[in-house]
Amino acid sequence: MQTSTHLGLRASVAWRYVLLFHVVLALFKLYVLVLEPIDLYVEEAQYWLWSKHLAWSYYSKPPLIAYLNFLTTQVFGDTVFAIRLNAVLVGLGLVVLVYRLTYELFKDELTAVLASFLVYAFPFYHFVSTLFLTDSPLALCWLFTLYYFWRAVQHNRLRDWCLVGLGAGLGFLAKYVMVLFFPIALIWLWVYRRERLGQKGFWLAVGITVVCMVPVLVWMAQHQFVAARHVTHLAGADAATPTVWKGLVRFVSYTGGQAALVSVFLLPTFYLGLKRLARRSLKPEVAFLWSFPAGVFLFFGGMSVWREAYPNWPVFAYATLPILLAYLATTLGRLRQTCRAVMLSVGVLMLVFIPVTRTTLVRWVDPTAEPLGEMMGWRELAETVEAERQQLGEVPHFVFSDSYQIASELAFYLPGHPQTYCINSGGRRMNQFDLWPGLEQFAYQGYRGIYISNVPLAPETEQAFGLTRHIKHVLLYTGNALRKEFYIYILEDFENMEPQTPQSF
């Protein structure tokens, strides 16, 4: 009989080979990003621009993503590669944590290795490991916190509880919704390990998290709590009470989006496996795996009744689902059925969700569909705008828009990465540009403005200049499909523009 030491050594050696596979896969993804980079998504461009204005927090999100972008762009320059490197590293970190948490839960090497491979079958994983949005670092912090939370519950070591607090604190610095961790953890502890609530470890973790939140809370207080007002607006606090039918339609739409991100091909395996488990006594480990994603799903599901909930909002909590699927496959003898479902899911992902080149992207996917439509055409627009900048030569000028998306993308793709500006010509909600210095710094100094918008020039914008010259109406096509439409104006002799108060947050 092999000793536990020999078994552990063999498991360690096996994991090294598995880890090597995951690293090679991550390097291949980086290679694809270098070989054929797809334009930055508008939110990626915005978060990159934040990294040029480091602060304790920002209008709509906490600061972690800006600091991560700052670190990678300092090393690799202001490139798509530098930004999406963060997402690829998050993906690798998630795979490692999935393995570690699985082994910590079940002490079974096969289940742990299988779980690390099953991650790739879930569309949500490719979302957080390809685009670098706030969901990416949040997903990593969430799983990191879960890993040490389980260890802390089992061993009650202060070191583990401190890491729970640190993980949750960093998660909050990625996205405010990290605060959902503690209510769900509290419920799980009440059901399965109530004695931990009477000990100091859990409350120490809460305290460390609160300390991490302090810089953001101070920033909020200094800026009229605009971030809190933005979050409550997104939650539908100022929305009219919907009809029962409209609320139901929204919830069904939300549920359908989550099914797509988890993969509809894997849902039957989950259903049949959990149905069989329900006939037995539910192990704390299994409840641990499904209670956190279920809690987050229900939270946003309830919100979706009041206002539209974006499909990406809950995805950060789904990283335990590959572990649950691996457990169902190895424990209930459903390995063959699971493999079939995984092959279907991965096949669809290869054809649709993770194309290798932009040519493949255009061939298989509607180029105007969200979010893909928002990731195409920005370099072409920047080339057109840069040609106009070159004609101005040494004449002082600035580039501005009425859209933070356009302003952010142009700041990234224009040569030299000039600071761009976003005006409020009426009707839009607040954004980060409203908290930065605006066009008032150029008033009555003879500046020209290059204005880019999706709609024709508004009269109040035109009145801020002495002379208006319409330049171009730019239409960007893919085949016969109109991708984007822009209006570009050269505006001369800037006088001044009174900033308008945003109508919403």
UniProtKB/TrEMBL annotation:
Signal peptide: none
Bilayer-spanning residue ranges: 14-34, 81-103, 170-190, 202-221, 251-274, 286-306, 312-329, 341-361
Keywords: Cell membrane, Glycosyltransferase, Membrane, Transferase, Transmembrane, Transmembrane helix
Every Glycosyltransferase RgtA/B/C/D-like domain range: 60-219
GO CC field: plasma membrane
Protein's membrane topology: Multi-pass membrane protein
GO molecular function term, any single one: pentosyltransferase activity
Subcellular location as annotated: Cell membrane
GO term, biological process aspect, one: lipopolysaccharide biosynthetic process
InterPro entries reported in the protein's UniProt record: LipidA_mod_glycosyltrf_83, RgtA/B/C-like
One Pfam family, short name: PMT_2
Protein's recorded name: 4-amino-4-deoxy-L-arabinose transferase
Organism of derivation: Catalinimonas alkaloidigena
